[in-house]
Amino acid sequence: MKPPRRDPLKPHITDIKRELSVDQLSAIGAIALQFNTLEAHLDLLVAIGLRLSPLTHREIITRLGTIESRQDLAKIMARDLAISEKTQELIGKSIVAIGTLKKSRDAVIHVRLIDSSTSVGIYSGKIRNVGKIKEVILLTEDLNELYSQMRMLDAELDAAGVIFSIHSMNRNQPNVPMEFRGETLAAWEIKLEQLQDTRLAQRPVVITPKTLGDAR
């Protein structure tokens, strides 16, 4: 006799803290908070490029619309600061990675768990294909790997922010060698490339909603 089919439209987990492991809960929380840091790095790149003051940049940045808009602006700012083409390409890859990781972050955050034994949940975010139910599997290993990728990207974006800052300072004092945190521009460019190579060498983890079937 077949087991009764679960209705994906009804919740089946009533106590998340009890039915998910500490490791799963810890990773989910870390992913949510770490992505906020990635977004803050992106906003800082735009703020430096636009020469916004620390007192007002939050008011302006938060009015710039979607994260995709800010990604485009950051790339434009890199060109405007006359950053080398090679470094612009590196920074562009880091900026694109924010969007890629956001998709996985959204899948983790916008999920309604229905089966703790298999870590399966129903995706409750925006669904392009209306009438489709999509499921997400929150395996601890994948969650930890996703968090690790976010941490590595965080280091890349930090280096990108330093490069933006040095070029911005050079606008005011051209031809004067600049250092930031005790290292030269060239050193930071090398560091960015090394950090990015390390991240890209890791096993890519993409947590994405997958179609379960037609909504009935």
Uncertain ranges = 1-5
Rg value: 21 Å
Distance between the termini: 23 Å
Instruction: Compute the average pLDDT.
Output: 85
β-sheet strand percentage: 5-15%
Strand order of the largest sheet: 1-2-3-6
Number of helices: 7
Topology of helices and strands:
Blueprint: H1 16-19, H2 22-49, H3 57-61, H4 67-80, H5 85-109, E1 111-115, E2 120-123, E3 132-137, H6 140-172, E4 179-180, E5 183-184, H7 185-200, E6 210-214
Antiparallel strand pairs: 1-2, 2-3, 3-6, 4-5
Helix pairs in contact: 2-4, 2-5, 2-6, 4-5, 5-6, 5-7, 6-7
Keyphrases for this structure?
6 strands; 7 helices; 4-stranded antiparallel β-sheet; 216 residues; two-stranded antiparallel ribbon; alpha+beta; disordered N terminus
Structure write-up:
The protein is an alpha+beta fold. The chain has one domain. Helix content is 58%, strand content 11%. The chain has helices at 16-19, 22-49, 57-61, 67-80, 85-109, 140-172, 185-200, and strands spanning 111-115, 120-123, 132-137, 179-180, 183-184, 210-214. Helix 5 crosses helix 7. The longest helix has 33 residues, at 140-172. It is elongated, with a radius of gyration of 21 Å.
